[in-house]
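Researcher: Next entry in the queue.
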Amino acid sequence: MTNRPTLSELSAEFFGSMLLVTAAVSSMLLFTATFESTKSIAVLANAITVAFVLCALIEIFAPISGAHFNPVVTMIMAFEKRIGAAKFGLYIFVQIAGGVTGTLLARLMFLEYVGSMLAISDTARSHTYIGEIIGTFFLILAILLLVKAGSSKIPLTIGLLVGGQIMATSSTMFANPQVTIARMFTNSPAGIRPLDGALFIAMQLIGALLAYAVYRFIFAKSTQTEEIQ
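Model: Structure for this entry, 229 residues:
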């Protein structure tokens, strides 16, 4: 990949982000609106769905764009100088556009139940902000370590990590600003009201920066040890 984004890279980030959000929103709508299941069952279904879909999306799009689908991942890759400024800005733009489109597609599929293509969420997620720091921290640290190791199992590992953290964090693991923005536009259980969404994004940035600081600290120490030896 070059520092100047190509149409194929931007398309991969758009469609990957779109399909990720579609899966996250539509799985909640399917189980709560169509199947009339409890929220606990819906969250379990959502975790499995997102894990499977994210694993597939990373496998499909990683050779094209790196399969970020997440502005904080793009931010960290910019810090690592794996992408340039132009790619950084355009990746984030298409990720957000793709995410909002994903919400529209999900609501279109269940239009009979939700009544409109777009709605501002009033779903409160107060007192769950720490979950976003924790979830984003482990996601970013895992990505950095896997990339550094040259792992061939990144899609599976990240899919399992995100699916598991959806069921293990108080916030149900958004850990992604574009997903957070996209989910502000659905008034279903998958949604998040804009005020909480803004705070979620702030927590995600904190979690990502903490993960990067830990990563740099770990490998700074490793480099010093190698030099002494």
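Model: The two ends are 35 Å apart (CA to CA).
Researcher: Noted, moving on.
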